[in-house]
Design brief:
The protein is α+β, with helices and mostly antiparallel strands. It has helices at 3-12, 16-47, and strands at residues 62-73, 84-95, 99-108, 111-125, 130-135, 142-147, 153-160, 167-174. A hairpin with a 5-residue loop joins strand 6 and strand 7.
């Protein structure tokens, strides 16, 4: 039963002064509901969730994003010759201009492959909130990015090197 049906039912069961009060209460409720929906819709439009197309650019990614992953590495990723479990943790720092750094520790099998290494990165951001990022060192990974319109989170999916099967959701923890 929708709101209009409820108001008609309420009016049908009342008389005189009560009918007038019920009508005024119904109009006031409708005004509040429409007003509340308008401000909600405005907030959703800003985030691109109410039918508007989200818009992103390089500045959408600005700040520090924590990440962690673990999973299987397949040959030839990171020099493995058979399926090997690995993991990494660290943070990306995006500068808002297509450059940044990754600070990361990586484990491949039982071996710490990198420990608190700071590596330069470059990234792209498309207006549809997709993009790429690459760690700028030979043999290091590249990723596709799927970016929250407000830049608060990114989903990363490894695209290189071959055999790197990793994905994560990375959350912004600082705008600096």
């Amino acid at each position: 039963m929708n709101h209009k049906s409820i108001w008609i039912l309420a009016l049908a069961k009342t008389s005189g002064r009560r009918k007038a009060m019920a009508l005024l209460l119904g109009i006031a409720t409708l005004a509040l509901a429409v007003g509340g929906m308008s401000s909600t819709a405005g907030a959703q439009t800003t985030l691109g969730e109410s039918g508007s197309t989200p818009r992103c650019n390089l500045q959408t990614l600005k700040g520090r994003y924590l990440f962690a992953w673990s999973g299987a590495l397949l040959p030839p990723a990171f020099g493995v010759t058979e399926q090997t479990f690995g993991g990494a943790a660290g943070y990306h720092t995006f500068n808002g201009d297509g450059t940044g750094t990754d600070t990361v520790t990586v484990r491949v099998g039982a071996t710490i492959f990198l420990e608190n290494v700071v590596a330069p990165i470059t990234y792209t951001v498309n207006s549809d909130c997709t993009g790429t990022y690459t760690v700028n060192a030979p043999g290091y990974p590249s990723f596709d990015l799927f970016i929250a319109p407000d830049g608060s989170e990114i989903a990363t999916f490894a695209t290189a090197p071959a055999g790197n099967q990793l994905a994560s959701i990375d959350t912004r923890v600082s705008r600096k």
